[in-house]
Amino acid sequence: MAAAVFRRGSYLWVVFDRLQETDLTVLRRLGGDVVRDVQQMQHTQATVIRILTESSYNPGVRREGLLWVVDLMPQPLRAKVPIPVKVQPETGPEAHILFDGIEGGTVLSILDPEVGDEMTVVPVIPVGQGVTPARIYPDLELLATVQGIALLSRIDTLNVQSSRNGIEIRASGAGLRLSRTVERAETPRESFSSSIFDIKNWRRGDDYLLEKRRLERDVLAAGNAAARTAPRLALARFEFAHGWGAETLGILGVLAADDPALLNTPAYRALRGGGNFLMSRFEEAVEDLSHASLADNDESALWRAAAEASKAMPEAQAPFLRLHAPLLQDYPSVLKTRLAQVGAEAALAAVDESAAQHFLEMIRAQTDAPQAGILHLTGRYNELTGAFDAALVNYGDVARGTDRYYQPRAALAQTELQLRLGQIKPAEAIKRLDRLRFAWRGDSFEFALLKRLGELHLAEGDHGQGLRVLKTLTATYPEHPETPRIHEIMQAAFDRVYLGEGKEKLSPLAVIALHDEFPELTPTGAKGDEVIRRLADQLVAVDLLDRAAALLDNQVRNRLTGLDKTKVGIRLALVQMLNQQPQKAIDALSSSEGPNLPPDLQLQRRHLMARALADLGRTDDATQLLQNDPSTDGRMLAAEIHWKAKNWGEAAKALGGLVEPPPPGQTLPEEKAKHALDLATALTLAGDERAVMQARRLYLTPLQGTTVYDAFNLITSNGDNTPINPRQVAELAKLAEGFKSFLTAYRDKLKQGKLSDIN
């Protein structure tokens, strides 16, 4: 079986060219805190595992017998044995890429749901053989791998063939375009489509104030609105070339007001898109730079990719930014630095060392580049390449500084790295991240910070605070592309509390409070019914009977059918009885009745109905229900109903069927002994002396050694018709009041178990 292992953004991909089911529970457990999520992607030919991990943890691959083992450690993403990438030849109709002598597996097409594109993956058999570093060509991109080959095609005619002798990548009908590799981004600017930003000429020299006054005089000298269009556009371009986004947008707004036709021209849209980017209005920038008039322009596409990367998921734009980096060659420092910073961030997110290094070198070459930014990006590069001590020094220098933009970012990166290296505990990380919550607001940094803070709270068992942070995040960024993923994390945490291992870690009151705060997370369908069932159990456990009844009543009325409805109706009736609401108990039983019920459920319903009727004073109706009930619970309930009504003779009849004399020489079990005492008490209170004496003859000896022997002896000792003494009167009164009731038995069951255990 051949394997491929590589990273794309935050996700690690493990691919085998044989289809089999994988135990994801085991993988999650083995991954510990490093692994945040594991999924097996659907595929007809292969086993495709996608793992969300901490970004600084990268895989190593080894074999143990027939098993492939993937080790996650803080290390660079590198293959142990880099596969030579042979370009033969670089140009012409036969140009192709060859991986010679590599025993490849099946060529697989795999959809990446995060980005929405399709990857071509070729697992290989030799252990540790992968592509290092990544390479980008006009027709394809080779991803960095620690095992196997993974690539992204930029043409429809790409053809990948794998055999025991090697792997070939060709283009059907023509050679691959391979000369424009951007491993070092040395492509000349002229190789791209026509420029739309003539920034060098737009700057008009180095004296900003002097040139600005000249342009403003040109605007004032124009006779009418139409004549002012050209000088105004020149002034807007001048401001843009000097990096002033607000001024650019202000002038463009006036231009469009005077001449609305400009709005749909490529020059206007590109310039306004660039101005919006400089103002960090990335949504507006993407909209402008996606205008149809700019469809075939590489330069506007570069700015659009930078805006997309600044919004979210920069790793998705990393290959494009790397490929188009040569367009920055003639840019002034203020613009080159800004775009190179975005390129470096994207390359680091995509774990592309080569591109990150190139963009960093570009930034360092600018004399006016912010030192805090350079240090922060250098720290991230050092972390990516495994130089963790150097990275912590870089982060610390920036975190102690005063740069409002980079200081919180460096503090977050420092905290994350120290946590991964075991230098601080999660509790300390939570404190630090909480202090950073208001250091920088309103962009991808705040999103990442709140997401991580919520995850840490959840990992530490603070479900309430974790869900609160994540709820704030989703409310603040409802349109963020990762917001659906945050909802999934919240739902999974909620489910763990009520349906998984987390349910044992919170007190009943905490579980109830969590549901009250996040009712929207209650799942639908069978899972939701199970959550309600367990929540009702918790509510009854802390005697919140009204709340439990309301939940169960909604289940009976609106959610359940069939046998499940009957079972929950019985539980609802019991809760209403415990809450001293007999009529509501009867209503619950009536509304949940179903056909062909199992005998045990029929019995439960009959007993609860009888007890509810008795509590409403309908003793005759209650006893009528129990008339032909031979069960122990039925006889006990009949005895209780008659006992409460002081129908001592009828109570004695019901009790008489509960206790049979044991064989000679045997002692009655404790429960039977209590029934015998209840029988003697009822007979005595009924004044049936003959029956009392008969009970004494039958049960006195078998009761020796039980807890009720003395009481039974006292109650039945009046066989000589002498007056009952005061002690007997007191004992009778005590026993009459202490008869164990039907509901008391249920309460005892609930102390030992849960409401849902009754059926």
Give an overview in words:
Strand 1 (3-8) and strand 2 (11-16) form a beta hairpin. The model is unreliable at 180-192 (pLDDT under 50). Helix 21 (545-559) packs antiparallel against helix 22 and helix 26 (632-644) runs antiparallel to helix 27. Strands 3-4-2-1-15 form a five-stranded antiparallel sheet, with helices on one face. A five-stranded antiparallel sheet has the order 10-11-16-14-13. The chain has 32 helices and 18 strands. The longest helix has 17 residues, at 225-241.
Summarize it:
The protein has 759 residues and is an alpha+beta fold.
The profile of the biggest β sheet is: 5 strands, antiparallel
Percent of sequence in beta strands: 5-15%
Rg, nearest Å: 39 Å
Strand order of the largest sheet: 3-4-2-1-15
How do the strands and helices of this protein lay out in sequence?
Elements: E1 3-8, E2 11-16, H1 24-31, E3 35-41, E4 47-53, E5 57-64, E6 67-74, E7 81-82, E8 86-88, E9 96-100, E10 108-111, E11 118-122, E12 129-130, E13 135-136, E14 140-142, E15 145-147, E16 149-153, E17 158-163, E18 166-171, H2 199-203, H3 208-221, H4 225-241, H5 245-258, H6 266-278, H7 282-289, H8 298-311, H9 318-323, H10 333-349, H11 353-364, H12 371-384, H13 388-399, H14 406-420, H15 426-435, H16 444-459, H17 463-476, H18 483-499, H19 508-517, H20 525-541, H21 545-559, H22 562-578, H23 582-591, H24 599-615, H25 619-625, H26 632-644, H27 648-656, H28 670-686, H29 689-699, H30 709-715, H31 726-737, H32 742-752
Parallel strand pairs: 7-12
Antiparallel strand pairs: 1-2, 1-15, 2-4, 3-4, 5-6, 8-9, 9-18, 10-11, 11-16, 13-14, 14-16, 17-18
